[in-house]
Write a structure and sequence with these properties.
Helix content: 25-40%
Shape: globular
Structural class: alpha/beta
Number of strands: 17
Strand content: 15-25%
Radius of gyration: 21 Å
Largest sheet: 4 strands, mixed
Bound molecules: pyridoxal-5'-phosphate
CATH superfamily of the largest domain: Type I PLP-dependent aspartate aminotransferase-like (Major domain)
Oligomer: single chain
Length: 393
């Protein structure tokens, strides 16, 4: 009997080691891992450069607390701001902490401006921003909030389907007390649904017009996953606040909040903090991840290989039009939307040694490491094709 609580539906496999795109189970099987810790292991398993970074740092200092200067964190923050819209960074340990910090910063910004009542955050219903008490109410999902009342107020919701040109409903939802709009640039858990470029541009425009803040949650789609460093770059816009996490640590827990100087100026000593956030061990790994992702040609290659993957997946969809309804996503954040419940399909893929994970709306989520090889994509395609064939008969 497991002593762990039963809040996860775990598959009955354990792994003894991993290498790149592959995982080796304790019972001697080799799997192509296109889950990668849910978009976390951006450079695959047991990446030698990340191993070296953590080994080197672990001999020097693990943790000192934010009572002191942390050069590794200064460096990581500088590199993140040099490459993006952001001017300031707060480090956290997870995605939910980063989105929580985003909410705090947005509210504090208007508080300092003398508008303490301007504190509502407008979110998309059934989105995903993490599992803390505030984040579940930000998502507005009944499944996530059920039993965890009292309801946390301060969030309003729009429907994803309202994200069509002109957004008649969006305009009505922005009220005097709205401080920010917070959306995932690509909805991950919600079914791999990118917010169309046109809509992102419109969001920026309306936020400017109403003088409110735009928070883009890039916890899952950020750090190169989409083929750009951030997915919002496809829309050529600049957000005000961006929480990130998953891919930044390559498997080591890190979260971060990126923001403009204007927004960050309200965060004076004592307004926010984290014991572990930004510790030297995490920061060194983050820097090692960026060493790879910032290499010339790295993101171009993610774009190139993901284009090939999407193209080939669409061919399979066309060959099995009664199995796959749609191929969704951006870059290496890919969803196969099926006509039926995806659980059996995912199990069949697993039986054929390809690991994937589900998302909402019958979606099979496919998350290769960003340095995946073409031969590995071809192997996945072969397995997906075989499973489609089995499902068709
Ligand atoms: C995973 C995720 C989170 C929460 O991250 P945790 O590290 O699990 O707290 C928040 N937002 C998005 C978009 C995510 O995908």
């Amino acid at each position: 009997m497991s002593a762990l609580a039963k809040n996860y539906n775990r598959r009955k496999i354990a792994f003894k080691r991993g290498k790149g795109s592959f995982l080796y189970s304790t019972n001697g099987k080799k799997y192509l891992d296109f889950v990668q810790g849910i978009a976390v292991n951006s450079l695959g398993h047991a990446n030698p450069k990340l191993i070296r970074a953590i080994q080197n740092q672990s001999r020097k200092i693990w943790h000192v607390s934010n009572a002191f200067l942390i050069p590794e964190g200064e460096r990581l923050a500088k590199r993140l701001t040099n490459k993006t819209f952001a001017e300031n960074v707060i480090f956290q340990n997870s995605g939910a902490e980063a989105t929580e910090a985003a909410i705090k910063v947005a509210r504090r910004y208007f508080y300092v401006k003398g508008k303490p009542k301007k504190n509502k955050i407008l979110c998309i219903k059934n989105s995903f921003h993490g599992r803390t008490i505030a984040a579940i109410y930000a998502s507005g999902s009944k499944k996530m909030t059920e039993g965890f009342g009292p309801k946390v107020t301060g969030f309003d919701h729009i429907e994803f389907k309202d994200f069509k040109p002109r957004f008649p409903n969006l305009k009505n939802k922005i009220k005097k007390n709205t401080a920010a709009i917070m959306v995932e640039t690509v909805m991950g858990e919600g079914g791999i649904k990118p917010i169309p470029v046109k809509c992102l541009k419109y969001l920026r425009k309306i936020c400017n017009k109403k003088k409110i803040l735009l928070i883009l949650d890039e916890v899952q789609c950020g750090i190169g996953r989409s083929g750009k460093f951030f997915a919002y770059e496809y829309a050529n816009i600049k957000p005000d606040i961006v929480p990130i996490a998953k891919g930044l640590g390559g498997g080591f827990p890190i979260g971060a909040l990126l923001m403009t100087k204007k927004v960050a100026s309200s965060m004076v000593p004592g307004t926010h903090g984290s014991t572990f956030g930004g510790n030297p061990l995490a920061m060194s790994v983050g820097n090692a991840v960026l060493d790879e992702i910032f290499k010339i040609g790295f993101l171009k290659n993610v774009q190139k290989i993901s284009k090939y993957f999407h193209l080939e997946l669409n061919k399979i969809k066309n060959d099995y039009p009664h199995v796959i309804k749609e191929v969704r996503g951006l870059g290496l954040l890919i969803g196969l939307k099926l006509f039926n419940n995806q659980n059996k399909f995912i199990k069949k893929l697993e039986d054929n040694k390809l690991l994937t994970i589900k998302a909402a709306e019958n979606v099979v989520r496919i998350l290769p490491p960003l340095n995946v090889k073409k031969s590995e994509i071809n192997l996945a395609l072969k397995i997906i094709k075989k499973v489609c064939r089995d499902f068709n008969t």
